[in-house]
Amino acid sequence: MMTKDIANPPNLRFDPSTIAFVVDPLRPVLAHGRDLLAGARVAPHAHPRAQLLWAAEGLLQLGTDGSVWLVPPGFGIWIPGGTRHEMQVVSRPGMGARTRNLYVDPSCPVRPDARGCEVLPVAPLLREVILRMVDEQDSDRLAHLAAVALDEIARAAPAPL
Questions:
Q1: Mean pLDDT on 44-56
Q2: Which helix (H) or strand (E) holds 160?
Q3: N or C: less crowded end of the chain, CB within 10 Å?
Q4: DSSP category for residue 125
């Protein structure tokens, strides 16, 4: 739904999460989630951590230098560390998107054979691990969940999209 309040339009431009820039091998996987309106954009950026950007709901468009991917609900996109990228919610107005992200420390070579970004199906186990990691505070539980997440990401076959 479009806002009619021109004086206070919704914020549709976002900076990337600061945890994407944290380099800490003792915390190999960090999680972050955002709910975004249709048309929302994350400014072009690159960070040292690799990222699994999951479209829990909504349709996302990810652009890198020279390539564009559409990420439908239920899929994620693997973004190797250091890759300059930007993201936009391309869901129809009123729909928006729920994004959940895992940021993987450079010390963890999860998908070393990947040649750039890859769209990956997010299997039910990985989906539940991501959801738990976004809300979990206990460092021991996070370490266990991170190990499962890394294994699931490493084993995921790229989607033929």
A1: 96
A2: none
A3: N
A4: H
Nearest CA among 25, 125, 150, 43 for reference residue 86: 43
Q: What is the per-residue pLDDT across 111-136, written as a single tens digit (0 to 9) for each?
A: 988 889 999 999 999 999 999 999 99
Amino acid found at 18? T
pLDDT (mean) for 81-85: 96
CB 77 within 8 A of CB 62: yes
Helical packing angle, 139-155 and 124-135, nearest 10°: 150
pTM of the model: 0.90
Predicted pLDDT of residue 16: 87
DSSP string, the chain: -----TTSPPP-EEPPPGGGG---TTS-EEEEEEEE-TT-EEEEE--SSEEEEEEEES-EEEEETTEEEEE-TTEEEEE-TT--EEEEE-SPTTT-EEEEEEEE-TT--SSTT--S-EEEE--HHHHHHHHHHHH---HHHHHHHHHHHHHHHHHPPPP--
Q: What is the pLDDT of residues 86-95, one digit of tens each?
A: 999 998 888 8
Q: Quick one: tokens of 69?
A: 């991917």
